[in-house]
């Protein structure tokens, strides 16, 4: 349900009791609602890559061939906005693979070699590399890989026990954050590593049994928004890096919120919401959580939003 769903058994973990990490942040009442300054948001619509205007909700289908499965495509824009990387099932290899397509819907090519189950593509800030997660049969776990867009060569970045996925680049491209699941502890944690995979460490101390997903690094490099699944509900939290009191609930709501995506200027966050008896829809709110509003039309399931960079 979240941006990547992490594609592992960890998605079914039941979370333990509540963890008191600070008071939930109530939505602040700003003077004006969010008015997105980036003019396009890519998203998934039942296995298709689509692009939407956040101002008027107009939708353009980028992929038009019928998907074999309707799993989220997790689109990611190239820095110049000309291409979109995404995940889709390839029947020729019977596996999910990473593809690249021009923003006008032409020139679709497969980037990965067909040997692994692939997910979570994310373009680097310079556009030369795509991070993704992949399950290799010989390894038996999901790991983070970097893919050279020009050569197509992939390099494994994460190692050790457990599962790794949902990568997100820092704005400088010198680091990335990702989700690490420890099966022995029955919990997932946000880790940060250098671009070459070295120096991996938790973003904050482990607290209790929990399930994190879909981290998104803010454009100013100071925050990471992510999904926290606890007590049967999904909420979006914001981690302020390098601060003593640094973790807060973004919007306190009775709904399920997940898959945060920062706008290029950092003033808004697009996200998914499942209200009572409804399908997942795309919303936009101010970065402080104020004035959430639905921008998708509610006709079907929409998920995994990604803002187009400023051009």
Automatic annotation (TrEMBL):
The protein's superkingdom reads Bacteria
From the UniProt annotation, give the residues forming the signal peptide.
none
In terms of InterPro entries, this protein maps to: 6-blade_b-propeller_TolB-like (IPR011042), WD40 (IPR011659)
Stated family: Belongs to the TolB family.
Q: Matching PANTHER family, A to Z?
A: PROTEIN TOLB, PROTEIN TOLB HOMOLOG
Protein's UniProt name:
Uncharacterized protein
């Amino acid at each position: 349900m979240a941006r990547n769903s992490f594609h592992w058994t960890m998605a079914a973990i039941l979370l333990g009791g509540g963890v008191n990490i600070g008071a939930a942040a109530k939505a602040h009442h700003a003077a004006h609602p969010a008015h997105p300054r980036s003019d396009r948001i890519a998203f998934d619509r039942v296995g298709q890559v689509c692009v939407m205007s956040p101002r008027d909700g107009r939708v353009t289908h980028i992929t038009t061939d019928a998907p074999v499965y309707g799993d989220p495509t997790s689109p990611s824009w190239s820095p110049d906005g000309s291409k979109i990387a995404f995940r889709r099932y390839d029947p020729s290899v019977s596996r999910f693979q990473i593809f690249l397509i021009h923003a006008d819907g032409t020139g679709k090519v497969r980037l990965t070699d067909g040997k692994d189950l692939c997910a979570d593509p994310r373009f680097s800030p310079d556009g030369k590399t795509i991070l993704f997660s992949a399950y290799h049969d010989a390894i038996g776990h999901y790991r983070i890989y970097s893919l050279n867009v020009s050569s197509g060569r992939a390099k494994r970045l994460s190692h050790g026990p457990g599962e790794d996925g949902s990568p997100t680049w820092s704005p400088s491209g010198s680091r990335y954050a990702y989700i690490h699941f420890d099966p022995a502890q029955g919990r997932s944690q946000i880790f940060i590593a250098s671009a070459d995979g070295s120096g991996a460490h938790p973003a904050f101390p482990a607290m209790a049994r929990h399930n994190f997903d879909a981290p998104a690094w803010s454009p100013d490099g100071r925050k990471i928004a992510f999904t926290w699944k606890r007590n049967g509900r999904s909420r979006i939290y914001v981690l302020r890096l390098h601060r003593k009191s640094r973790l807060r609930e973004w919007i306190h709501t009775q709904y399920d919120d997940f898959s945060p995506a920062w706008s290029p200027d950092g003033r808004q966050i697009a996200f998914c919401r499942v209200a009572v008896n409804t399908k997942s829809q795309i919303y936009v709110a101010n970065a402080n959580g104020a004035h959430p509003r639905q921008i998708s039309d509610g006709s079907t399931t929409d998920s995994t939003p990604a803002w187009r960079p400023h051009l």
